[in-house]
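Posting for a labmate who doesn't have an account.
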Amino acid sequence: MIDVLESIQPISLRKRIKGEFYRMELLYDNVYVIKEEGKIIFVIEKTYKNQKKIIYKFVISNHYPYQPPVLYINNIQYGQYLICPNKFLNVLKYIRGIECFCCASCTCRGNWTPSITLKYVIEESEYNSNTKYNIMIKIFLDKIKEQYLISDINLDSWLFHVACPEVIKPGTKYLI
């Protein structure tokens, strides 16, 4: 592994990759770096409490950290995870105040800055996954309220902190 890290050029890219590698090595089950066809592939394996294993694979160009890496989660490009059905978009705007996941993602070139780390990208993907789960909960909740409850019950502010949008940000843990 040390040989692969030492062979990365230019030196500024090598320092950045080594720094991220050593920080991630402490946090995740398995972390390794591969060089293939002029690209650097940074692989992180994480096992969750429910024994679900996820493999994050970052394909990094020589322009990193000035260009975002391409992320694959279990061999599916992260951009595919960001796409959601139209009926989710209204709820997404209601819960998070954004139009779509893609436009708000740190992996979007317009939102990317060199200070964003691979760890932050992983945290964002987990947060977006949690948000999608909350969107499904909200859709089910609306159906239940429509059929069985009084419509003016404000469960949304209790479940999703809609009254306080500042608490909805990456890294926030929800009970749902």
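Reply:
Got it, the structure tokens are right above this. The mean pLDDT is 85.
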